[in-house]
Design brief:
The protein is mainly α and 47 residues long. The chain has 2 helices and no strands. The protein has one domain. The radius of gyration is 14 Å and the shape is extended.
Amino acid sequence: MNRLVSENCDILVKIPMNGKITSLNASVSAGIVTYEIVKQRNTKKML
C-alpha cells in the first residue's frame, strides 16, 4: 500500500492469512470483515 494512502486512512485492518495467499480482492476482503463484525456482535448479544 502506498504510504500516502495509508496515512490518509481512518483505520487500517489486517486480515491474517495462512498459506501461499498474498492478497485478496476488495469484495473478498469486505466479505471477511463483514462476517467477523456480525459474528462478534452476535456473540455480545448472547452474553
